Amino acid sequence: MDLAPQLLVATACAVTVAITTLPLLSVIAILLGTRRASRGLWYAGGYAVGLGVVFALSSWGLSFVFVPPWRDPSAYLAVTVGVILIVAAAVWWLYDRRQSERTRESGHRFANWLGGLGPFTCAVVGFQFAFHPKNLALTIAAASRTGDLGWAGATIVGVWFCVLGVSSVMIPTVVFARSGPRAEERLRGIDTWVRERGTGITIIVLLVVGVALIAIGAAQLLG
Question: Which of 15, 141, 198, 223 is the most buried (most CB within 10 A)?
Answer without folding.
Answer: 141
